[in-house]
Amino acid sequence: MSEFDLIRRHFTRATPGALLGVGDDAALLQASAGNVLAVSTDMLVCGTHFLPDADPFLLGHKTLAVNLSDLAAMGAAPRWATLAIALPEADEAWLAQFSAGFFALAQQHGVELVGGDTTRGPLNLCVTIFGEVPVQQALRRSGAQVGDEIWVSGCLGDAALALAHLQGRIALSAPQFAACAAALHQPQPRVALGLALRGSASSAIDVSDGLLADLGHILEASQVGAEIEFDALPVSAVLRKNITPLNPPLSGGKPNSSPDKGRPGGVELLQQCILCGGDDYELCFTAPAARHAQLLNIATQLGLPLACIGKVVAGRGCIVHDASGNPLNIEACGYDHFR
């Protein structure tokens, strides 16, 4: 099978929303009247972002999902994408499953694949995604104001907990791992939430590298600080069961990295999953306190839990408080490819 046969068979679909799609030297796209284009690129590398034996259908889903999450954080409606893929070989069965996962999510969000590239090499997946948003309604990192509330969608830490299990850093039962694995392998981009937050949120970001790291980008861009309540962070039943009660406490003292009796892993590891683990692909956003009731209504309408986890304050940096109001002793954390 040639490169062009591969493209025609697995990655060519009708693109009625584009002036010109797959098949020429470039796609031709036109934003709708009154909108600007929001453009983002994400790369997934085998061995860094996913394991070599990753399910190809789920990998196709995640390859697009992580890009859709960026558009959600901007309040942009998805429209088009390009896919550049390096393959060790042209494995028909693998490609069929990968493209099926990719296009299933693309159809769900109205995304058209309008171009890309294929080459032989170590497995590497790179998507550039294009969305539309009215320029004055785009959500940015730089709009947080002192007094704003800080919110996060869904649950935090499940993906990191599942990865810790796969890496042998924690031992989960089969039901516990199954409950967490979907967050790692098949994240759900919060596109509908991003659209609903237009005009309500003052800033937003998707949580890909860990809550503290990504919230830190908002704080830096907005030149403000934050205070967060650890007990207000939304976590799944699996994490909640293993992190409560906190013994020893999370605040102060020497970090506890050894497993606690009767638990699959130490409190310190579970804390890291929630605050720093990454791969959540939830939205973290700020909004004026006057919008609190409105945001709860949005949560109800979307059937998506939204948790108010803290507030924006003057100054710099982020302080996380335990249930007694004491600051947690947390070292700098968050995923960084070059650290």
Task: Supply database-style keywords.
339 residues, alpha+beta, Phosphoribosyl-aminoimidazole Synthetase, Chain A, domain 2, 2 domains, 4-stranded mixed beta sheet, 10 strands
Tell me about this structure.
With 339 residues, this protein is an alpha+beta fold. It folds into 2 domains: 135 residues, 60s Ribosomal Protein L30, Chain: A; 181 residues, Alpha-Beta Complex (Phosphoribosyl-aminoimidazole Synthetase, Chain A, domain 2). Helices cover 33% and strands 22% of the residues. The protein contains 10 helices and 10 strands. It has a 6-stranded mixed β-sheet with strand order 6-8-5-9-7-10, with helices on both faces. It has a 4-stranded mixed β-sheet with strand order 1-4-2-3, covered by helices on one side. α4 crosses α5. It is globular. It starts with a helix and ends in an 18-residue tail after the last strand. About 6% of the residues have low confidence.
CATH H-tier superfamily of the largest domain? PurM-like C-terminal domain
- What's the count of strands? 10
- Kindly, what is the distance between the CA atoms of the first and last residues, rounded to a whole number of angstroms? 40 Å
Shape: globular
Order of helices and strands: HEHEHEEEHHHEHEHHEHEE
Name the beta content range: 15-25%
Helix content: 25-40%
Please give the CATH architecture of the largest domain.
Answer: Alpha-Beta Complex
Mean pLDDT: 88
Task: Classify the secondary structure makeup into a structural class.
Answer: alpha+beta
- Report Rg: 21 Å
Largest sheet: 6 strands, mixed
Low-confidence stretches: 244-264
CATH topology of the largest domain: Phosphoribosyl-aminoimidazole Synthetase, Chain A, domain 2
**Helix count?**
10
**What is the number of domains?**
2
